[in-house]
Amino acid sequence: MEPLRIAVIGAGAWGTSLADLLSEVGHEVTLWAIEDDLCARMKEKWENDLYLPGISLHPTLRYTSDLAEAASVGQDMLLSVVPSKFLSSVWDRLAPSVHEEALIVSATKGVDEETLALPTELIERHLGGRSVVCVSGPTFARELAERKPTAIAAASRDAAAARRVQEAFSAFCLRVYTGGDPIGTQLGGALKKVIALAAGVADGMELGHTTRAALIVRGLAEMSRLGAAMGGRPETLAGLAGMGDLVLTCTGDLSRNRTVGLRLGRGEKLDEILASMRAVAEGVATAPAAVALGKKFGAEMPISAQVHAVLFEDKDPREALGELMARPLKAEGS
């Protein structure tokens, strides 16, 4: 396809990695960073030393800390990779400058804590209902930056828009599949973080591979229950954005959420863990939203509820595990 003018909003590890690859594919890409000093260093050193150190960025990639400038540059596509905690505030400032014909894409994984909206829903509200494509799947930013083979899903109610994203993103190291279920696709990317915290806690307690496997499978069950209650499709949660991302985040050493869980399982306090981390572990903020969504839509979320209790109610992880094991017996599919 013809090169596109793309603005990537958010210079964390994932946004930087995507911007770098899209530049290599041949698009005209500008990366927006909220930090003026980071933006200046990237211009000088061609490296995001804060979130993706050691990776040399593509020489055609451009940088800005001005949102209006980013919007004017991204006339063909705006790719939003802002942490869910800051998504609403960034789009409140960005929306008035967005080009009316630009394709809007969200790569944020999370749920808005206040409104319980998914990222595309939140962006669409800021844009007056304009359709947004979401991309998600089993990805680590550093591995994509190292050009290791990766597969993701691009989902939208607008099939043509999803195909445009597929064509724009596809590369020698990135395979993109399309889908029509943005709800399930985004829920998978958000809820897997909470289950990864649980898996990390179990690993930190040295409970073994069988415990982790049980948490992954039963975690997928509650993700699927909530997905169905909210209008998502079972096949979506069984695919890249669901099971694929869940397995990666629960087992990979690069997973920030699993790392937080590991340290909790070893006896560290949450405040100390978060204070020592530069990058955001969004599962901590997603846990309350997951529990709230379960209550809102009548979906049982036992693992998410216990993770929430460990994080915010100072519950002992062994007590939480004991309560999960002592739940009433039931058929697997129920």
Please give the structural blueprint.
Blueprint: E1 5-9, H1 13-25, E2 28-32, H2 36-45, E3 62-64, H3 67-73, E4 77-80, H4 84-94, E5 103-106, H5 119-126, E6 133-136, H6 141-145, E7 150-155, H7 159-169, E8 174-179, H8 182-204, H9 209-229, H10 234-237, H11 240-251, H12 256-265, H13 270-275, H14 283-297, H15 302-312, H16 317-325
Parallel strand pairs: 1-2, 1-4, 2-3, 4-5, 5-6, 7-8
Antiparallel strand pairs: 6-7
Task: Describe this structure as you would to a colleague.
An eight-stranded mixed beta sheet has the order 3-2-1-4-5-6-7-8, with helices on both faces. The protein is 53% helix and 11% strand. β2, α2 (36-45) and β3 (62-64) form a beta-alpha-beta unit. The radius of gyration is 19 Å and the shape is globular. The model has no long low-confidence stretch (mean pLDDT 96). The protein contains 16 helices and eight strands. With 334 residues, the protein is an alpha/beta fold. The chain has helices spanning 13-25, 36-45, 67-73, 84-94, 119-126, 141-145, 159-169, 182-204, 209-229, 234-237, 240-251, 256-265, 270-275, 283-297, 302-312, 317-325, and strands at 5-9, 28-32, 62-64, 77-80, 103-106, 133-136, 150-155, 174-179.
